Amino acid sequence: MLNATWLETFTTLAETGHFTRAAQRLNMTQPGVSQHLRKLEAQLGQSLIAQDGKSFSLTPAGEAVRALGQARRDEERRLREAIATDSPDAGEVRIACSGSFATLLYPRILALLETAPDLTAHLEAAPQAAIKRGLLEGAFDLGILDHDPGHPRLEAEHLGEEELCLVLPVRDAGAEVTFEALEARGFVAHPDGFAHADELLPLNFPEAYQGADRLRVRTYVNQIGQILDPVARGIGYTLLPRSGVEAYAQRDLLAVIPLQRPRRHGLWLTSRKGRPLSARLMRMQRLAQEAAAALG
C-alpha cells in the first residue's frame, strides 16, 4: 500500500503548485516535502512531476496519484462525519430472527423506513444456530434467539416469551381437541413444524403421539407467509409460535386452541458483547421490544 503520509504530502504539493507553500501548509520544511516526493516516486517507480526551473507540472502518473490522494481525503472526511454523527435515521442495520417473529417485526421496520430514507435495514429469517453463528462472525448486528446463548462473546436481553400455538380453523374454536381428531384433519407441515410437534404434542397427547415422523401430513409449505393459508381454508392444523399467528392477515379465520400443558419460547435480543449499540441499533432494539410486548 502507498505510504499515507507521503501521499498526503504529494496531494498538498499538487494543490498548491509550490514546494514552499506546501511545506507551510503541512508545517514541514521544504527539504522534507522534497524527501516525501522522492520516496513516493521510488515506491511507485514513476516520476510524478516534471520540473521547469522553480515551477513544475504533474506527469500523467502524478495526475493519477493526485486523484487518488483527493479520493482518500474524501473517504476519510465521510468516515469522520459518520463517526461524529450517530443518527438513528441513517446507516445500516442487520438483524436476524425466526421466520415467525420476522412477520411481526418487519411491518414495524417498514414503517420506520418510511420516515427515515437514509436508513437501510436487512432482516433475515434464519434458524437459531445460524443466527448465533452470524452474530459471532459479524454478519448480524442484532439477533433474536429463543434462549440466552450463554456465550462469552455475546450478551442477551430478555424481551419476553411467546406461546407455541396449536392452530385450527376458527370454526373449531371451543371444540374438544383429541389427537385422533388432529390426525383425521392432517398436519400442515413446514420447516420448523416437526420440531414444534415433538415439543408440544407429547406434552398434551402422551399416549397417542408417536413422533413427528408418524404424523399424517396433509400439505407442506416452506414460505412463512403461507403456512396458515391451508388452516384458514379448513384443510389442516399446524403449530406455530404466537408471533406468526398474530401477524397473519386473516387472523379472524384462525383459532388458537388452549392446551392443558402449553409450551412457551423465550425471546432474547442478542448482540456482540462489548460493542456499544449505535443510535440506529437502539431504535431497532425498541422495535423488537414493542413487537415482543404485543405478544402479551
From TrEMBL:
UniProt xrefs under Gene3D superfamilies: Periplasmic binding protein-like II, Winged helix-like DNA-binding domain superfamily/Winged helix DNA-binding domain
PROSITE patterns hit by this protein: HTH_LYSR (PS50931)
CDD domains: PBP2_LTTR_substrate
Annotated keywords: DNA-binding, Transcription, Transcription regulation
Domain called HTH lysR-type: residue spans: 2-59
Pfam families from the UniProt entry: HTH_1 (PF00126), LysR_substrate (PF03466)
Protein family according to the UniProt entry: Belongs to the LysR transcriptional regulatory family.
The protein's name in its UniProt record: LysR family transcriptional regulator
Top-level taxonomy: Bacteria, Pseudomonadati, Pseudomonadota, Alphaproteobacteria, Rhodobacterales
